[in-house]
C-alpha cells in the first residue's frame, strides 16, 4: 500500500520538476561516490599506508577516482547524455569543475584537520556539503548542457 502511494506521489508531483529529479539522482550518485572516495581514502591512508600522514595527497587521489566514477554514472543516468562525440571534452569540463570543488574541499580539509585538529574522517564528511550544490550546478549548466 505504501509503495503505491509513494509511486503515485513521485509520478504525480516529483516528475513535474525535472531539475529536482536530476538533483536527487545527482545526490544519490554523489552518495555512492562519497563511499568510493572514503573507501579509497581509507585504503590509501590506513590499509595500504601508502600516504601515511599525507592526508591531502590521499584525499586528492580518492577524490579523483570518485569524480571519474561520478562522471560516467551522471552522464548516463542523471543527465541521459548520449553524445559520444564530445565525451572527452565533457569529461574534461566535469573534471575541471570537480577540481575547483576539490580546491575548496582541500582548503576546508586543511582548515579543519591541520588548523582546528578535527579528526580527518569527520572532516571528510563535513566537506562533502561544500561541493554538492556547486558541482550539480556546473554539471547541469556547463558540462551536460543540452
Would you write up a description of this structure?
- By secondary structure, the protein is mainly alpha-helical.
- It is 81% helix and 0% strand.
- The protein contains five helices and no strands.
- The protein has helices spanning 2-12, 18-47, 55-78, 87-115, 120-143.
- Helix 2 packs antiparallel against helix 3.
- The longest helix has 30 residues, at 18-47.
- The model has no long low-confidence stretch (mean pLDDT 87).
- Per DSSP, the total helix count is 5
Secondary-structure-based class equals mainly alpha
Low-pLDDT stretches are none
Number of domains: 1
Rg value:
17 Å
- Average residue-wise pLDDT: 87
Note the overall shape.
globular
Taking the sheet with the most strands, its summary is:
none
Instruction: Determine the N-to-C terminus distance.
Output: 38 Å
Strand content: under 5%
Amino acid at each position: 500500500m505504501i509503495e503505491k502511494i509513494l509511486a503515485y506521489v513521485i509520478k504525480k508531483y516529483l516528475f513535474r520538476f525535472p531539475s529536482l529529479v536530476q538533483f536527487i539522482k545527482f545526490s544519490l550518485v554523489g552518495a555512492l561516490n562519497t563511499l568510493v572516495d572514503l573507501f579509497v581514502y581509507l585504503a590509501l591512508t590506513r590499509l595500504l599506508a601508502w600516504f601515511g600522514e599525507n592526508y591531502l595527497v590521499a584525499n586528492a587521489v580518492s577524490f579523483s577516482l570518485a569524480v571519474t566514477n561520478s562522471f560516467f554514472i551522471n552522464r548516463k543516468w542523471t543527465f541521459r547524455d548520449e553524445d559520444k562525440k564530445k565525451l572527452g571534452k565533457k569529461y574534461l569540463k566535469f573534471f575541471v569543475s570537480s577540481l575547483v570543488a576539490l580546491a575548496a574541499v582541500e582548503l576546508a580539509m586543511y582548515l579543519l584537520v591541520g588548523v582546528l585538529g578535527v579528526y580527518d574522517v569527520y572532516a571528510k564528511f563535513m566537506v562533502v556539503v561544500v561541493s554538492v550544490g556547486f558541482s550539480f550546478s556546473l554539471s547541469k549548466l556547463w558540462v551536460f548542457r543540452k
